[in-house]
Specification:
3-stranded antiparallel β-sheet, two-stranded parallel sheet, 11 helices
C-alpha cells in the first residue's frame, strides 16, 4: 500500500521545481545576451580598437554570456543606421526606407536582432509586419499606416519636392491620397491610428485601389506617370 508523502518529499519537490525555473531564467538571459553580443560585434566592426576591446572582454565559455547583458556597453557609431548590417542598409536604400518583416528575415535578421534594432532606434514600427528607417518622414509613415504609398496628387507633390530637393512638409492639413493593393480588406480609421500609435488625428485619406499601381514606384510613392494618370481620373480633387 502506497504511503503518504512526508514533509521531506514535498520540500524536495518544491526545490526541484524552483531549480527548473531558475535554469529556464538563466537560459533565457543567455539567449538575450548572445543577441546583444552579436549586435555589438557588428556595430564595432569599423572601429578595430573598440572591437578588440569588446571581443576580449566577452570572450569565454557560454557561462559568461549570462552576465554579458549587465556589463555590455555600446561603443560603436551613433545610434541609427550605424547599427544596421550592410544587407539591411542595402534593402532600405532599395525600398525607400520601408521594409517588411519577411524581407528583413530574408537578409538574415532574426526576431532577436529585430527587437534589438527597435530598442536601439535603428528601425521603427510602421504597422503590423512593417518597419521603417528613422529618417522616413511622418507623412510617409502615416500613408503606410493607412495601407500603402502616396498616390495621385500627394505623390505628385512628393516627386516635385524631390526634384527641387525642398522636402515635404511634416504638417498634414489635407487628406492624403494613398494607393493600396486591391486585395486589402479595409483601411483603418484615423481614430484607430491615433489611438494605436499615439499620433495626431489625421483626415480620412482618399484611397486608390490597385495592386499594380501600388508597386509602380518605391515604398514612398507611386511612380510619376501613375500619379498623373490617377490625378486625371480622381474625382476627389
Amino acid at each position: 500500500m502506497r504511503g503518504r508523502s512526508g514533509p521531506g518529499e514535498a520540500k524536495r519537490g518544491e526545490a526541484g521545481r524552483g531549480e527548473a525555473r531558475r535554469g529556464e531564467a538563466r537560459r533565457g538571459e543567455a539567449r538575450r545576451s548572445w543577441g546583444a553580443y552579436l549586435l555589438t560585434r557588428r556595430s564595432t566592426r569599423d572601429n578595430p580598437t573598440e572591437s578588440r576591446r569588446t571581443t576580449k572582454r566577452h570572450r569565454g565559455t557560454p557561462q559568461n554570456l549570462a552576465v554579458m547583458r549587465s556589463t555590455l556597453t555600446y561603443c560603436g557609431p551613433a545610434r541609427g543606421t550605424g547599427h544596421l548590417s550592410k544587407p539591411v542598409r542595402a534593402l532600405l536604400a532599395r525600398t525607400g526606407g520601408i521594409v517588411s518583416t519577411r524581407e528583413l528575415r530574408a537578409v538574415g535578421v532574426d526576431p532577436t536582432m529585430l527587437e534589438l534594432y527597435r530598442d536601439y532606434g535603428s528601425l521603427q514600427a510602421v504597422r503590423q509586419g512593417w518597419h521603417c528607417h528613422p529618417d522616413v518622414s511622418p507623412l510617409h509613415r502615416l500613408a503606410w499606416r493607412f495601407g500603402g504609398p502616396l498616390a495621385c496628387v500627394s505623390a505628385l507633390e512628393f516627386h516635385a519636392s524631390a526634384n527641387t530637393q525642398s522636402g515635404l512638409s511634416d504638417v498634414i492639413d489635407t487628406p492624403l491620397h494613398i494607393c493600396v493593393p486591391g486585395n486589402t480588406r479595409s483601411v483603418p480609421s484615423p481614430h484607430l491610428l491615433a489611438e494605436r500609435w499615439s499620433i495626431p488625428l489625421a483626415l480620412q485619406p482618399v484611397v486608390h485601389w490597385s495592386t499594380r499601381d501600388s508597386r509602380s514606384g518605391n515604398r514612398l510613392a507611386v511612380s510619376r506617370s501613375v500619379a498623373l494618370r490617377q490625378a486625371d481620373r480622381c474625382t476627389a480633387i
